[in-house]
Write a structure and sequence with these properties.
By secondary structure, the protein is α/β, with parallel strands linked by helices. The chain contains eight helices and ten strands. The chain has a ten-stranded mixed β-sheet with strand order 9-8-7-6-5-3-4-2-1-10, with helices on both faces. A hairpin with a 5-residue loop joins strand 1 (17-22) and strand 2. The termini are far apart.
């Protein structure tokens, strides 16, 4: 049964429509969409969550997008949230190869965005979702007009010796251990670990809210990744280090990085962003990995950047004006309990200019 879960400090926003989605390789995805109140809709924002996340974690963000006049689409990637699994242990964050995520986006495009939601379509991505979106934009199949991504998974900083780790997981995967947790990893969701010393946010209230949501969703809040996931992630991230990669991305893109990110390597993100020909980036001081789950002062900078960039106009050039306390990295011209919900099936149912 499709459902969205609510907790006392995390109510479901608006009036959601739940949609059963199935990918071309048979994975069931949990998806939902919302329409804003009022006669004027600016378009649709699709949330592309990070690893180990789930729709409930983005209720606040979804509500803020609705208030801005956007329709919203959200879904759980395969292998996490309440979407389908490819391993027996639902707590394992597993995928064989990152190219499988293309099937997820294309299923959401065909079964949610195109039949139900108004254009233009935009993407708001985080971490792993940001890396997937940047890769898709490079390959010219991302079905969105513009992309905003926070702390994209360009490179991982929480692993001390990434080249050594990559060699180890590659060897373990070749030995047939791909479906095992990474060494030292377990079933506990990172969202339910103690606030002190956490890598995600400096906001204790939002951290506690997300912990309650993770507890409510149970196995939907996955634990550590599998060896296969990490092996695939290392191979996937390697492409971003090629200096010829970023310039081929022609989709108007805004990257918002965190100065105090202990998960993804902000210096690598800065170098990548500086090579973009159709985008730019800012770095927000004091922010940890989950910018959208941060303190109000940090989130205000995020929303100021988002509001200036989305929906945007394709014929305007970004003027390179610094946003609040963030720093501009590139200044290029753009080319261009449960809740009752409606269930739809298939086709039936700061100054920144960009």
């Amino acid at each position: 049964m499709l459902q969205l879960l609510a907790t006392q400090d995390n109510p479901v926003p608006g009036h959601p429509h739940l949609v059963p989605v199935t990918t071309t390789d048979g994975v069931a995805l949990r998806a939902a969409y919302w329409m804003p109140q009022g006669d004027t809709v600016k378009g649709t924002v699709c949330v592309l969550q990070g690893r180990a996340e789930f729709i409930e974690k983005y209720y606040e963000v979804i509500g803020e997008l609705l208030e801005r006049g956007f329709a919203v689409a959200a879904f759980d990637w395969r292998g996490q949230g309440l979407s389908g699994r490819q391993v027996k242990n639902a707590r394992k964050g597993h995928v064989r190869r990152f190219s499988d995520f293309r099937r997820d986006i294309e299923a959401i495009r065909d079964q949610v965005l195109m039949p139900f939601l108004p254009e233009p379509h935009f993407a708001l991505a985080h971490s792993m979702g940001g890396a997937i979106a940047l890769s898709a934009a490079h390959e010219s199949w991302l079905p969105f007009r513009r992309l905003v991504t926070t702390t994209p998974m360009i490179a991982i900083s929480m692993i001390k010796y990434p080249s050594v780790a990559a060699g180890i997981v590659r060897a373990l995967s070749s030995l047939g251990l791909g479906k095992s947790f990474v060494p030292g990893g377990g079933a506990t969701s990172i969202s339910t670990k103690p606030f002190k010393g956490n890598r995600l946010t400096s906001d204790p209230v939002r951290y506690a809210r997300n912990a309650h949501a993770a507890q409510a969703i149970g196995d939907g809040a996955i634990g550590a990744p599998t060896i296969s996931w990490l092996n695939a992630a290392f191979r996937f991230m390697k492409r971003f280090s090629d200096p010829r990669y970023a310039p081929k991305i022609r989709l108007p893109t805004l990257i918002i990085a965190a100065a105090e990110d202990p998960v993804c390597a902000t210096p690598m993100t800065e170098r990548f962003a500086a090579r973009l020909k159709a985008g730019h980036a800012i770095v927000i001081p004091g922010a940890r990995h989950e910018i959208m789950m941060e303190r109000d002062a940090i989130r205000e900078q995020f929303w100021a950047a988002f509001d200036a960039f989305i929906p945007g106009t394709p014929d305007e050039a970004y003027q390179g004006v610094p946003l609040a306390a963030g720093r501009v990295l590139a200044t290029e011209q753009f080319d261009g309990g449960g809740v009752d919900a409606t269930v739809a099936g298939g086709n039936d149912a700061a100054t920144l200019r960009g």
